[in-house]
Amino acid sequence: MPAGTVLSLDASGLRVACGDGVLLLTELQLPNRNRMTVRELVNGHLLHLQAGDQLA
User: Fold this and answer.
1) How confident is the model at residue 6, as a pLDDT?
2) Strand (E) or helix (H) holding 7
């Protein structure tokens, strides 16, 4: 799986493939917004990602 590929997205976080494993992101900050948990972003429908998407 190429680095930057979304592996899964659920209430515990966003899992992204990286060089030698998986990175679990639990908080994100969208442009012009405060930092939020992935759970808050998913519940608020502000995060439109799914498994297989590629992050830039």
Assistant:
1) 97
2) strand 6-10
**What size, in residues, is the chain?**
56
What DSSP letter does each residue of 14-36 carry, written as one string?
EEEEETTEEEEE-EE--TTS--E
Domains of the chain: 1-56 (3.10.25.10)
* Block residue for tokens 């992050």: 55
Give this prediction's pTM: 0.84
Give the separation between CA 20 and CA 37, rounded to whole angstroms.
25
Classify the C-alpha dihedral 14-20-21-27 as positive or negative. Answer: negative
